[in-house]
Design goal:
Layout lengths: L7 H6 L3 H17 L5 E5 L2 E6 L16 E8 L4 E5 H5 L1 H14 L5 E2 L3 E4 L7 H9 L3 H13 L1
Antiparallel strand pairs: 1-2, 2-3, 3-4, 4-6, 5-6
Helix pairs in contact: 2-5
Length: 151
């Protein structure tokens, strides 16, 4: 479900009531913990956090006019999802998150490649997500991204 909202505030305001509080709290945790240099914007119809062209002029290699995406969150039909590109591309970070998750949440981790799904709003481990976000700097992400492109 892609939103046509043009601002994060508009995106959250358009959500069903049962999702607004969780998405607002996720946004607050993200803004509090995201390292300096990442920028918030609407991307792909969801809340996105990117490396802006002012830092990484090349942008996303498939669509260079878009900035380099790092993290996103969206309210989908059956869940709230977060998308963390470094969890997908760095086995150590993935393994750390998977090991820490049970300490914060009793429900089973529902995770795809970069997607982590939360079907119950009370199960969202906000503190863990904040810690996850704080672990990767803009420079870390650019270095990792470029190393993947070179392969």
């Amino acid at each position: 479900m892609q939103s046509k909202a043009t601002t994060p505030e508009q995106y959250i305001a358009e959500l069903p009531e049962d999702r607004k509080e969780a998405m607002q709290k996720l946004r607050e945790i993200t803004l509090k913990n995201l390292p300096k240099g990442f920028e918030e914007q609407m991307i792909y119809g969801m809340l996105g956090y990117v490396v802006p062209h002012s830092i990484y002029p090349n942008g996303y290699h498939c669509t260079p006019e878009l900035p380099l995406s790092f993290f996103a969150m969206a309210s989908q039909k059956n869940s709230i999802n977060i998308y963390h590109m470094m969890v997908y591309s760095d086995k150590n970070l993935h393994d750390w998150f998977a090991a820490e998750y049970p300490k914060y949440c009793i429900s089973k981790l529902d995770m795809g490649k970069s997607c982590i799904r939360f079907k119950k709003m009370n199960d969202i481990p906000y503190e863990l997500i904040g810690e996850l976000l704080s672990k990767v700097t803009v420079e870390d992400w650019i270095e990792r991204y470029e190393s993947i492109l070179r392969k």
